[in-house]
Each structure stands twice: as C-alpha cells, then as structure tokens.
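Convert to structure. Protein one:
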Amino acid sequence: GHAGVLYAAGKYQEAADYIFEQLQQRFTKAPEGEESSYAALWYLLANCRYELQDYAGAAEAYGEAIRLQPQNAQYLRDMAVCAAKVGQLEEAGRYLEEAIRLGADVSSAAYVGAEILLYQGELWQAQEELLAALQATADSSLKQRIYLSLSQLYSGAGQAALDPDGTRRVQLLQQAAADETLGDSQAVLSLLARAYYDRAQKLEGEAR
C-alpha cells in the first residue's frame, strides 16, 4: 500500500503520519479476523518510528503489533532490538528468547547482542557482532536491519574510531545496494548517496 511505498522510499515521517491517521480512522479494536492486517500496520508504524530514532514510540507500536499477533517472531525480535536501544536489557533478552523459540533466525541473537554492546559503548565489539550476523543470516529483513545499524554506527558514535574517512560506510552500503536478497530498497540507495557526499566532503576538507 501507500505506506509501504513511502517507507521503501525512506520517507519515514510521511509514512508514520499516514499510518497513524489510518489507524485513528479505523476501530480502536481490530475486528475479529483482521488482527494480522492491523498488526502489520502497527509493525510498519513501529519501523518508521525506529528509523526516525523515536525508540519509545517504536516500542509502543511494536507492543500493539505483538498484542494482536503474539506468535510473530519478527515482531518480537524487533521489539528486543528496540528495548536494547533504550537500555532495557532484561526486557530485550526476554523478547529475544521468545522470538527464537518461535522460529526467529538464530543470528537475531548476535544482532540484539550487538545493539546491547552499542548501548554499553563497546563500539568495536558491536561492529564485529553485526558483521558476523550479516554473514551468517539469510533473512532479508534481518540483513536490512544490520546494514542500517552498521551505517548508523559508522556515521555516528563509531565514526572517529571505526570510519574516520567514511570509506567503510560507503563500502558497506555498496554491498547492501548490490545484495539482491534485499529487493529494491530505495532507503539503502538514499543512504549510499549520503555516504558518498559525506566522504567527498571529508576528503575535500583534508585536501585543504
């Protein structure tokens, strides 16, 4: 639908506003038999908020998705990541355990572990865990999440120590853009364009 198109294009705020409006216009309670479609809307809203780094808002929306579909391993895994992002480490472990019990890719454990390490400031170790999880998983939604986490790491907290000239971030996103299992992800392409720009600015600054 329209929200999915906006999300794929990296227009997270527009997508979040549109989904929230859709949810507000519908019944406050999902009609019987429509729980999965309502859960999918809440999940997409949660993903938008996550990308906007509104982790409290994302956790609230993941919670609604899980309330409607408590057996969905992907929802539980992403709730675990969200909990790790805000330092709710016990909660993250609990959601992760349930997600793996319900069939989430075992590489999810390394991914959530990496997010916990990031919260604790262990940047190099977090990078190694994320790269190992990326190698190990065949789950396309997990891969996309890991690529985005690494990109955030290289452009944010880990920039000075791990990627001072921006080359690692460019190479990572080139790999993501060429990864056919991800499908056509405009979000990755827009991040890659930004990474090229940032690296050019750094190199220009160094040349002066």
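Protein two, convert as well:
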Amino acid sequence: FLESIKNEEVEAYELVEKNKKGERKVVKYWRAGTARDCLSQKLTTPEPALIIGSGISLDLAGPHLHKWKGATFCSISQATTLVHYGLDPSHIVAYDINSQVEELNRIDTWEGRKCALITHPGVNPKMMDYWKGEKLLFRSMDSSNFFFQNVLPFAYGDAIPSQMFLFSCSLSAQLSLAKAMGYSPLFFVGCAFAATRATFSSFDKGEW
C-alpha cells in the first residue's frame, strides 16, 4: 500500500514537471484578465448551438452553414473548415494535449472574428500564446488519477473551478461544454462517424 502511494507521488511529480510550461502560460493570461473559467460565460437563458464533428454529414451540411446565426462548438481541426463555409465558430475546443497551432493557422488571421478558445492547462503551451482572442478554461479530471484528483485542484482551484472528465474524442468535450454553458437545444453536424469515405478534406489558406 505504501509503495503504491509512493509511486503515485512520483508520477504526480513527473507530470507536474512536464506541465510547468503550460501552468505558467495559464497563470500569465489569467492574471492579465485574458483567460477565465468557461462557466463564467454560462447563459441565463438557453440558446441553440451547433456541435460540429468530422463525419460525412459535415460535407453535406457545409455549404448551408453560413446561414446559421447561433453559437457553434467545434474542434481545432474543423475551425478553418467552418470559416471556409462562411461561418465563424463561436467556440473552438482545444481538447487534445497535442493540439497544434498549425491547425488554426490555415487562414490569414483570426483577428476580428468573435471566436473563443476553450482549453485546459494540459494542452500545448504554444496554443495559449498563439490565440489572441478570448480564452475560456476548464480543468481535466480523472478521479482514478492522483494528479488530476489532487494536484490540479490545488494548482487551479480558485482560477479554474470548472472541471470535466475527458474521454473518447473532442466531440464529447464539445457536447459537455456546450451543455454546461447553458446552450440548448444542441444540433449535431458531422457527428455521423459510422459512415466511410475515401478522402478527408481540409481547408488551408484558400485551398482544399
């Protein structure tokens, strides 16, 4: 039993050391007032929102998305695709710890677009520096892991009280965040993952 506790402490220490850069970025922007807890934006009156996935139905719905006037939650991999279709996403979720800024850097600029980045302290620290717009934060949680259960709440409890269990893919995070922030009803686009297709398209600086 004591050995298992020791192993958990060692694991937590290693994760903290690995995560220090990300922690510094979060604290920097939180203190500057440019990053805040995601539920600080919770709606008092429900509003509809689109939840965007990478399934085949996105190809079919894409040309019509510019008509949508409500909120839109998407992953960083589909953010520039939505811009191509004439719809600026209201919320871009950087869920994966290996999220790369290059996925967002496929359009000329994000300045002037009313988009918020929703992310957590465990993502690539470069993401926090790259995104100049609004940053909304949550803490990742895994009740079976010492680091998530004890270290993150101690480090960010006051600044980021919101927490979410991460599982599956970005789509589950988008759904959970939208629901927690008060959006309803939610409409799913590109969430038909059972279908197959031969190619996967991406939009990069004006070209597919």
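The first strand starts at residue 35 and ends at 37. The radius of gyration is 18 Å.
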